[in-house]
Amino acid sequence: MAIEGLNERSQHLLRTLIETYIQQGQPVGSRSLAHDSGLDISAATVRNVMADLEALGLIVSPHTSAGRIPTAKGYRLFVDSLLQVKPLQSAEVKRIEHELQGASLHNTEMLISRASGLLSDVTRLAGVVMVPNQGGMSLQHIEFMPLSGKRVLAILVISSTDVRNVIIDAGRDYAKSELEQIANYLNAAFAGKGLRAVRETLLREMRETKADMDAVMQSAIEMADKVFSGSEGGDGDYVMAGQTNLMEVSELSQVERLRRLFEAFNEKRDILYLLDNSMQAKGVKIFIGEESGYQVLDECSVVTAPYEVDGQCLGVLGVIGPTRMAYERVIPIVDVTAKLLGYALNRR
């Protein structure tokens, strides 16, 4: 592949340098690069090529008299133009498929948790899976049970295997008969509709017709608003596994760097924004170093892929690790896991 400013020899040496650095984690010198490249060239010739690559901002020397390591720009060129991604072995695909299918027999939360754990286990990095956007799911049935302290338990049936419990502050005590009336009204009005559509209808009815509602209808709308508030996934959430794997990565092992990284994981806002940016991507999307826009991730790469049900994107999953990650392996793992998660959700 022709790359502006690089001939085939320069491309080959850059690819060899990056692959060697990913594997060994040490700056690569001209002698070892000449040997590893398999080309019949001298170390002096390699040094000249390395000087050109450094002038282009593709590699850098971390210390005086040290070898060279890739920059984020170098990794980007490598991933976009030089990387050869190989499909996963059938045994690995079957393992992921088997574990996700097993988890799908329980509930969505367990399935999402298992997917993040699988990503972490297989890559030895941090796996992250967005909780599905509930706007793409439909309400099948709703029931209410009175609790103490003016609270009510709402039981939402999304599917035969996806039942969710929400405890709300009802503002007053409700008799069981009142809650049955409210549930009957909501089931008649909203059963079979998408959660996003339910939320939009509630907001419209509260705004436009509140004065004309009878007491039961008004109570039903107000209670349902509390149940479905935020159900579109606007604030978002994700499940992460394997954060401690990053403690074993030398580039990320500084205490202060790890502290800031783990704080970002706990606060979730920045990571969720990054995942949201991948929602419309077709297939795998990769953020390398500074490309994320967040300083805390400057030494990290994030490999993501959306997962879908019936052609509708419900969320994004991915892997977070050092820029020095085995992209040729991580990319197909993320891609396959996203497809199999969508398949498992679709079967539920």
UniProtKB/TrEMBL annotation:
One of its GO terms (biological process) is negative regulation of DNA-templated transcription. Residues 110-331 form the Heat-inducible transcription repressor HrcA C-terminal domain. Pfam families: HrcA (PF01628), WHD_HrcA (PF03444). Gene3D superfamilies: 3.30.450.40, Heat-inducible transcription repressor hrca homolog, domain 3, Winged helix-like DNA-binding domain superfamily/Winged helix DNA-binding domain. It comes from the Bacteria. Keywords: Repressor, Stress response, Transcription, Transcription regulation. Residues 9-77 form the Winged helix-turn-helix transcription repressor HrcA DNA-binding domain. GO terms for molecular function: DNA binding. SUPFAM superfamilies: GAF domain-like, Winged helix' DNA-binding domain. Belongs to the HrcA family. NCBIfam families: hrcA. Negative regulator of class I heat shock genes (grpE-dnaK-dnaJ and groELS operons). Prevents heat-shock induction of these operons. This is Heat-inducible transcription repressor HrcA. It comes from Candidatus Tenderia electrophaga.
